[in-house]
């Protein structure tokens, strides 16, 4: 009885302490962690069919800035474009660092581009952007590579071939990023390895649960959570090892003279190894190391394929559902190219309807279910709400891209909206905004323009069995992907 009373008092103490604590945060659904998540959020997700729907509902009740609880951690979602700009751009210096769930570091140990912080991140990001530019991203060299990859996959298809288009796009984007990193693409020799790693990683991502990533560090020591976390992270470690083995092999080849690094490095790994050596030779302390290289390559490899491949698959899905749009895009592109040359990024100024169509594809595809979080460096006021130092905050892209205030009838695929309102282009922010915005934006934009554009201008696209649905395969998974489907391509003579 005494023990029970003590237990009860402790629970009441924690609840009261917590209720006092939550008053510091912007309002949200039931402000009791765990319960707030497990019941209220889950109920909203069930009611609306997706986290995006749940956040929309919370926004209607509490305003565009609100708190949800990731286990014991409060996380603030900004669901309005102007407020997101105020926070992430105008007051951007306050939102540079990432806020990471505790188990992120199991794999990374503070390394990489995506979740690292401080001077380490500044140095790594600057170097990566500079190196990608030198390797031809945003120049003709990259355009050529993307087009080569496009031709390699589609040139020999016959009109009665059933093409598993999701998989083809995954391979195209993987090859483009892998050539940047290691100078080679996947072929018969290593394709099985690529697909087996990818399948396992996809499974984990499709079933990933943000709450699970937020189990506090002390609780991760319990056997149940430890085992679950190890199982969840297994495929990521396998990919990390796969990439690390290739880097070590490259180092050995350089050592034994079978691989030469010229003045101009031919890929990211060479450039990075040169940087490590340069720092060592000049006795400069820096963030460049083998572990840092492995994690930087991991982030580029991982972020560089999944996102773009899913967007390309959405593009074909929308085209199959909206033949009128395809016809208009095709006519515009063939007017520009004469139908007898590849579409090039230099044509962009002459393809306003196609540009609008790409914006609309990215807006409606809305592939990032919950955006990555930043950590507030200081107390700051956004839209009348105080965000406190140390809190997790994000510009919730998914809800910004489907905000009726800017995008009338937001669930409708309608590229024309961009032609009648020039401001909408700026308000379409699939790559995020501010200092931590996507590092691969120009590569991704080049891939989308060249691959979608050349596919449409060259081929008539047909669904094999049935037209794929415009609804995502799993509205609750970390990345909104379309269902898997097959197409046929008929070359336009
Ligand atoms: C359609 C394709 C893509 C979309 C929609 C996309 C979207 C995003 C988003 C929303 C973020 C987080 C931004 C934020 O914190 O607010 C991000 C970060 C990032 N993306 Fe992408 N991305 C795409 C393609 C790529 C590609 C091709 C690469 C690599 C070449 C890449 C590399 C990264 C990296 C490294 C970060 C972390 C940046 C940092 O924390 O400094 N992404 N991306």
Automatic annotation (TrEMBL):
Gene3D superfamilies: Cytochrome P450. Heme binds at residue 438. One of its GO terms (molecular function) is iron ion binding. Keywords: Heme, Iron, Metal-binding, Monooxygenase, Oxidoreductase. Its cofactor is heme. GO terms for cellular component: cytoplasm. GO terms for biological process: organic acid metabolic process; xenobiotic metabolic process. The keyword Heme applies. Pfam families: p450 (PF00067). It comes from the Eukaryota. The keyword Metal-binding applies. PANTHER family: CYTOCHROME P450 508A4-RELATED, CYTOCHROME P450 FAMILY. Belongs to the cytochrome P450 family. This is Cytochrome P450. It comes from Diploscapter pachys. The lineage of its organism: Eukaryota, Metazoa, Ecdysozoa, Nematoda, Chromadorea.
């Amino acid at each position: 009885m005494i023990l029970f009373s003590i237990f009860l008092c402790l629970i009441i103490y924690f609840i009261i302490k917590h209720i006092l604590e939550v008053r510091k945060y912007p309002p949200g659904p039931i402000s009791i962690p765990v319960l707030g998540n497990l019941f209220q959020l889950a109920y909203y997700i069930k009611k609306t069919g997706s986290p995006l729907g749940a956040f929309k509902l919370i926004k209607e009740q509490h305003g565009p800035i609100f708190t949800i609880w990731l286990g014991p951690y409060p996380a603030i979602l900004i669901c309005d474009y102007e407020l997101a700009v105020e926070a992430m751009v105008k007051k951007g210096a306050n939102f540079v660092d990432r806020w990471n769930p505790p188990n992120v570091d199991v794999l990374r140990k503070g390394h990489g581009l995506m979740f690292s912080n401080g001077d380490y991140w500044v140095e790594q990001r600057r170097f990566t952007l500079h190196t990608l530019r030198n390797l031809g991203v945003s120049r003709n060299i990259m355009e050529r590579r993307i087009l080569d990859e496009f031709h390699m996959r589609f040139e020999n298809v016959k009109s009665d071939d059933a093409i598993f288009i999701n998989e083809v796009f995954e391979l195209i984007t993987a090859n483009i990023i892998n050539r940047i990193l290691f100078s080679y693409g996947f072929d018969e020799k290593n394709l099985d390895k690529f697909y087996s790693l990818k399948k396992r990683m996809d499974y984990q991502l499709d079933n990933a649960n943000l709450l699970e990533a937020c189990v506090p560090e002390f609780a991760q020591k319990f056997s149940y959570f430890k085992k679950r976390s190890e199982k969840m992270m297994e495929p990521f470690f396998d990919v990390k090892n796969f990439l690390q083995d290739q880097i070590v092999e490259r180092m050995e080849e350089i050592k034994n003279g079978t691989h030469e690094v010229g003045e101009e490095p031919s890929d990211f790994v060479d450039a990075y190894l040169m940087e490590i050596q340069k720092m060592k030779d000049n006795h400069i302390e820096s963030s460049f190391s083998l572990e840092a290289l492995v994690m930087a390559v991991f982030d580029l490899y991982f972020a560089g394929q999944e996102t773009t491949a899913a967007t390309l698959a959405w593009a074909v899905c929308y085209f199959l559902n909206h033949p009128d749009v395809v016809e208009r895009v095709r006519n515009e592109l063939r007017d520009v190219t004469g139908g007898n040359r590849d579409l090039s990024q230099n044509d962009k100024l002459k393809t306003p309807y196609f540009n609008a169509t790409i914006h609309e594809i990215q807006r409606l595809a809305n592939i990032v279910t919950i955006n990555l979080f930043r950590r507030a460096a200081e107390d700051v006021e956004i839209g009348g709400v105080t965000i406190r130092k140390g809190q997790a905050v994000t510009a919730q892209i998914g809800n910004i891209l489907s905000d009726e205030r800017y995008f009338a009838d937001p669930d409708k695929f309608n590229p024309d909206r961009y032609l009648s309102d020039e401001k909408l282009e700026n308000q379409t922010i699939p790559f995020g905004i501010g200092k931590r915005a996507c590092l691969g934006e120009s590569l991704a934009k080049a891939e989308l323009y060249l691959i979608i554009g050349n596919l449409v201008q060259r081929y008539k696209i047909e669904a094999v069995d049935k037209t794929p649905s415009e609804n995502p395969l799993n509205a609750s998974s970390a990345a909104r992907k379309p269902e898997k489907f097959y197409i046929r391509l008929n070359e336009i003579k």
